């Protein structure tokens, strides 16, 4: 029986080399058979409020469809809301994933349920007369611009009038909404078109027992006219004290010479206050009588007027007197206004020397509340930080009971004046629309909001100038 002999050392070396080559070329094909992809987890969050802790998970190691919303256990709910989609941020500002979308499961992720409010309808009424039944509707489930008046179908018309704005009452006494204003659609709403006549407006004057002439004033709707001062009318035993929408003085009061914005045809009635009729002294006893004037809290001065007893003197105007935050209303023989009242420019029969005291009524003065900004370059869109600033403004209006808000838009220099004007104006309008929406949600009524664009401040290129300044009173 033959014995095996060991291989020569050279042969052993050749075998080793051969095995190494085989391993190198074979290993790429063998290794993957033993590799396993890592598992990752998707966490679904119910997200119906800031403290909601309800979650569900799905763990996979390869591309797989996300668990259907209807298959989650426990089921996700949000009263009054409808599931819309998933997002990587609770407020929906991140990446969106649709229901059942394919996900690679190559990394863990938290997905928040995004909810959609219930749909509600706004009904627009043409409102050109009491029997007008023409309407149009708009249905949404979240904050959306109201349908443009010009886009309504059928078109709304009112012969001899132009569209002004919308109101919750047919006579315009309710809450006002501007054209294309943002509405939350949190509830149904009926809005009536409010119209403005294209014909001239006339204010007539009834002397209400007096004599003389007070000519009517006429102008285009929205224009400003000056009411008669009362110097051309009189009533024996009385002095003119102003105008009123009611002959009994129980309506809206206007001072003679006051400026009035024309809105509708109406009649104003002269108001009279009684005065003592003083019989003149006999000629032998006539003496000089002087009437002095006291600014009564205001600044400036008026020279006294004088004459003999029984003579009639015309009281001077009050242009030389000013009192910040107040409007002059009349003269009175007592500083507290409890004496005899005289209108500026009234005729007074002299009987004895006296001092007349200026009477004032408070006039709200607008003060700077702050600003809303900064807007993105060349943008009029309200980012979430800008919306939060407006939310704070609405809350302050509610607490402080402001009744007027003036918004002045600005922008950094763009190099084009027309663009500066458009940007600043549209920013102010955007803030006004959103503010009205927030005040409506807070049940705050009766706030007069105006918006205008101031363009760009000369040589100001900083983004800080892209803002809307807020004045309140």
Secondary structure elements and their pairing?
Blueprint: H1 9-30, E1 40-45, E2 55-60, E3 64-65, E4 81-87, E5 96-97, E6 102-103, E7 109-117, E8 120-125, E9 135-140, E10 144-145, E11 161-167, E12 176-177, E13 182-183, E14 189-197, E15 201-206, E16 211-212, E17 217-219, E18 224-226, E19 233-234, E20 238-244, E21 253-254, E22 259-261, E23 266-274, E24 288-294, E25 305-308, E26 312-314, E27 326-332, E28 341-342, E29 347-349, E30 354-362, E31 367-373, H2 384-400, E32 404-411, H3 417-441, E33 448-456, E34 467-472
Parallel strand pairs: 1-7, 8-14, 15-23, 24-30, 32-33
Antiparallel strand pairs: 1-2, 3-6, 4-5, 4-7, 8-9, 10-13, 11-12, 11-14, 15-17, 16-19, 18-22, 20-21, 20-23, 24-25, 26-29, 27-28, 27-30, 31-34, 32-34
Labels describing this entry:
473 residues, mainly beta, Immunoglobulin-like, 5 domains, five-stranded mixed sheet, 14% helix, elongated
């Amino acid at each position: 029986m033959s014995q095996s002999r060991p291989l020569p050392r050279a042969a052993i070396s050749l075998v080793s080399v051969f095995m190494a080559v085989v391993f190198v070329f074979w290993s790429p094909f063998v290794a993957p058979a033993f590799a396993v992809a890592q598992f990752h987890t998707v966490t679904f969050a119910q997200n119906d409020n800031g403290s909601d802790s309800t979650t569900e998970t799905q763990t996979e190691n390869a591309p797989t469809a996300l668990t259907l919303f209807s298959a989650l256990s426990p089921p996700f709910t949000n009263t009054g809301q409808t599931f819309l989609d998933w997002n990587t941020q609770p407020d929906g500002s991140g990446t969106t994933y649709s229901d059942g979308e394919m996900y690679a499961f190559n990394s863990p992720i938290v997905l928040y349920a995004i909810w959609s409010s219930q749909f509600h309808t706004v009904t627009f009424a043409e409102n050109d007369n009491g029997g007008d039944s023409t309407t149009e509707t708009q249905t949404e489930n979240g904050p959306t611009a109201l349908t443009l008046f010009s886009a309504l179908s059928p078109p709304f018309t009112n012969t001899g009038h132009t569209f002004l704005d919308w109101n919750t009452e047919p006579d315009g006494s309710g809450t006002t909404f501007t054209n294309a204003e943002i509405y939350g659609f949190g509830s149904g709403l009926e809005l009536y078109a409010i119209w403005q006549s294209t014909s001239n407006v006339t204010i007539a004057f009834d002397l209400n027992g007096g004599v003389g002439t007070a000519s009517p004033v006429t102008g285009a709707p929205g224009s400003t006219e000056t009411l008669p001062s009362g110097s051309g009318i009189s009533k024996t035993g009385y002095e003119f004290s102003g105008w009123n929408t009611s002959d009994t003085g129980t309506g809206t009061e206007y001072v003679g010479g006051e400026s009035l914005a024309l809105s509708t045809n109406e009649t104003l009635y002269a108001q009279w206050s009684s005065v003592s009729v003083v019989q003149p002294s006999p000629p032998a006893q006539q003496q000089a009588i002087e009437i002095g004037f006291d600014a009564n809290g205001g600044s400036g001065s008026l020279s006294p007027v004088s004459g003999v007893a029984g003579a009639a003197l015309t009281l001077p105007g009050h242009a030389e007197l000013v009192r910040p935050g107040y409007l002059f209303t009349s003269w009175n023989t007592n500083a507290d206004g409890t004496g005899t009242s005289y209108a500026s420019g009234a005729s007074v029969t002299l009987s004895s020397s006296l001092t007349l005291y200026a009477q004032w009524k408070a006039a709200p003065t607008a003060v700077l509340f702050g600003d809303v900004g900064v807007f993105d370059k060349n943008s009029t869109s309200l980012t979430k930080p800008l919306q939060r600033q407006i939310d704070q403004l609405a809350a302050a209006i509610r607490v402080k009971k402001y009744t007027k808000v003036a918004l002045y838009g600005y922008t950094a220099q763009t190099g084009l004046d027309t663009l500066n004007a458009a940007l600043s104006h549209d920013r102010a309008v955007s803030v006004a629309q959103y503010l009205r929406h927030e005040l409506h949600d807070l049940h705050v009524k009766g706030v007069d909001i105006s918006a205008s664009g101031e363009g760009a401040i000369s040589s100001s290129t900083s983004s800080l100038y892209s803002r809307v300044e807020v004045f309140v009173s």
